[in-house]
Amino acid sequence: MRAQRLVVALTVTFVMSIGWVLTAADARNEQKADDSPVAQNNNKAERSRIAQGFEIAPVPLDLAGRDRDLVGLGSYLVNAVGGCNDCHTNPSYTHQGNPFAGLPKQVNSAHYLAGGTPFGPFVSRNITDVTEEHSFEEFLQMMREGKDFDLRHPQISPLLQVMPWPVYQDMTDHDLRAIYEYLDAIPNATRCASVGPLSPTQTDPTCVP
Ligand code: HEC
């Protein structure tokens, strides 16, 4: 009995000391990475963006096998900075949550980033499946050079129009990678078949502008 108790006590002590050694090693590594006050501030700023990104994501995110921090940061950049929803979700907000009517904002999550907003002869694209169809390198070409891999309007221009890639081209690789990772984590969606007042054939209320 006594011997058994001793074995248990020794085991517990051993496991706890491993835990302590690992924690201490972690703390040392973190200290090394975050030595300067500037690095500490940057890290803090990025952490708060990541947390905010998760807070404001309007759709469930699939984090399995993905870099959690990049997804959170990507959400922040897409939803609080980049304004992608304004052009790539049609309509951008639900009927009951239209901020332009003075109502508390409610993103049209059923058709989130599925495209379909017309801009003259151009229509915003579905970007919920862009990471399935394009590598990160190709995505960089879209976001930096406006390369239109689908050549939707060769008679007008081989470049993406309306899309503010001349602005996004100045984002860092890290930030664009975060956006790519976030777009990979959101659910695929289809755009509203038609956007207009509810009719017998128009049964999806999120499609009413
Ligand atoms: C001012 C409106 C606008 C905003 C804001 C906007 N886009 Fe676009 N985007 C478009 C339009 C319109 C197209 C299609 C352009 C064309 O057909 O020439 C497009 C095309 C794209 C494409 C090409 C897709 C493909 O399959 O070839 C990607 C990728 C994209 N946008 C990503 C984004 C991301 C990410 C954001 C936010 C960081 C964003 N866009 C913000 C209007 C916009």
Strand content range = under 5%
Count of helical regions:
8
- Alpha-beta content class: mainly alpha
Give unreliable regions as ranges: 20-31
Could you tell me the number of beta strands? 2
Strand order of the largest sheet: 1-2
**Broad shape:** globular
How far apart the termini lie comes to 75 Å
Explain what this protein looks like in three dimensions.
Strand 1 (118-119) and strand 2 (122-123) form a beta hairpin. The longest helix is centred in the first third of the chain and has 32 residues, at 2-33. The protein is mainly alpha-helical and 209 residues long. A two-stranded antiparallel ribbon has the order 1-2. Mean pLDDT is 87; it is low at 20-31. It has helices at residues 2-33, 37-56, 68-82, 84-88, 130-133, 136-145, 165-168, 173-185, and strands at residues 118-119, 122-123. The chain has one domain. The structure holds heme C (HEC).
